[in-house]
Design goal:
The protein has seven helices and 19 strands. By secondary structure, it is α/β, with parallel strands linked by helices. A hairpin with a 6-residue loop joins strand 15 (353-354) and strand 16 (361-362). It starts with 8 loop residues before the first strand and ends with a helix. Residues 1-36 and 281-288 have low confidence and may be disordered.
């Protein structure tokens, strides 16, 4: 911890100056300005430094500030700091001395990064840093004290990724990362066991981590305006999930498994402004008749995994075989790093489909049968949507013909 003192003096123009100084016995009686590290303090801060060691709240919103003085580290009783709507470009590392801080509001500034000392604060519960220009989020791999942070808001920044160390924020209940440059979420997000609300709207997310079904408390998952092409079926395995919003994505049809899970969980599904495919003739490519080597490899691995499950894998209350299958696949990928090098194989295994006729599992290559039905009660879509395309997957041409006959679909 840096020991600071305020050298109080005014220059000839009446401007208050301050400087950082390590206290010794030799310089306690020294008078006059300190030449090293002396910068003018912005007038708006002066009132707080009349008695900095007793200050508990600092509301500096809309004060046209450009800096936060390093001497803020003297405010060891400070519990709430708000500097919203200014032009601050960085925070001093001495903010780590404000060990009583519980709430920090940094919204609408020009911050490019957050100092690591901020995440080391032992009592910090709320951190709002929306509408800045943060490109990288750096969280220490080891925290001096267990994190008490429950709310983290990083909306409207320039984040391209989240660090794996985000798992250190073990008390998070709400994480908002809307309108950034994210293409995926790290698997470490799934380790946030207390997370209840996750919002990642306005990004470029195509897939979710395969372990997202392991989240224990997530109730609301908001993924509006991303690049999802299908509803993440493994996300529906989250036991506590009550609302999923995938509006403004690239979803053309709804998997039958989604309907069954939403009905059984009483889950509200938002799907407004998705490009649902129009009723028409289903087209098949030759690739469906001759599965690729990748597809055959995936089906073999899935067959072995399902066999292990049927022979004695324990299924806990509230789980189904699909949940156990996802768990087993995650364990296989962790145990065989060589498999993870094959990106295509990993992506194929992340969202297996089961044949609607015979029940066998497939990955990326299967026949698709589309049925147009009235919107279920749990589905929130546009008022103009009269019927929605409901798709089911089948593993072979034989099963495809059986499913067509069952649904009376003319192809």
């Amino acid at each position: 911890m840096v020991k600071l003192s305020i050298r109080k003096y005014f220059n000839e123009d009446g401007v208050f100056y301050y400087g950082e100084d390590h206290l010794d016995d030799d310089d306690e009686d020294e008078e006059g300005p300190v030449e090293e590290d002396v910068v003018p303090m912005e007038p708006a801060w002066l009132v707080l430094f009349r008695d900095p060691q007793r200050t508990k709240q600092a509301n500096m919103t809309s004060k046209k500030l450009m800096t936060v003085p390093r001497e803020i580290g003297m405010m060891q009783r400070l519990e709430r700091l708000s500097v919203n709507n200014n032009a601050i470009t960085c925070l001093p590392h001495t903010i780590g001395n404000c060990t009583s801080l519980k709430v920090v509001h940094l919204g609408r500034n020009l911050l490019e990064y957050l100092p690591m000392e901020l995440f080391q604060l032992p009592n910090l519960q709320t951190l709002q840093a929306f509408n800045n220009v943060i490109k990288d989020l750096v969280i220490p791999a080891k925290l001096a004290h267990p994190s008490r942070l429950t709310l983290l808001n990083l909306n409207h920044n320039n984040l391209a990724s989240l660090p794996p160390t985000i798992s250190q924020l073990s008390c998070l209940t709400s994480l908002s990362i809307d309108n950034n440059e994210l293409t995926t979420l790290p698997s470490e997000v799934c380790e946030l066991v207390k997370l209840e609300h996750l919002s990642a709207c306005g990004n470029h997310i195509r897939i979710l981590p395969p372990t997202i079904h392991t989240m224990k408390c997530l109730k609301k998952l908001i993924l509006i305006d991303n690049l999802l092409e299908s509803i993440p079926i493994h996300a529906l395995s989250i036991k506590t999930l009550r609302e999923l919003d995938v509006s403004l994505n690239r979803i053309e049809s709804i998997d039958k498994r989604v309907v069954m899970r939403c009905q059984s969980k009483k889950l509200k599904l938002h799907m407004a402004s998705n490009p649902f495919r129009k009723k028409g003739r289903t087209e098949l490519s030759l690739a469906h008749f001759f599965p690729s080597l990748r597809e055959l490899s995936c089906r073999t691995l899935l067959h072995v995994t399902v066999k292990r499950i049927n022979e004695g894998a324990k299924i806990y209350p509230g789980q189904n075989k699909y949940d156990v299958l996802c768990d087993e696949i995650s364990l296989i990928l962790e145990a065989h790093p060589s498999l993870q090098k094959s990106i295509d194989l990993v992506q194929a295994l992340q969202n297996p489909s089961s044949c609607a006729v015979c029940g066998r599992y497939t990955c990326l290559e299967s026949f698709t049968v589309i049925e147009y039905v009235e919107p279920p009660q749990f589905l929130v879509a546009e008022v103009s949507t009269i019927k929605i395309p409901l798709q089911s997957h089948v593993c072979s041409l034989q099963c495809y013909e059986k499913e067509k006959e069952l649904l009376h679909i003319k192809v």
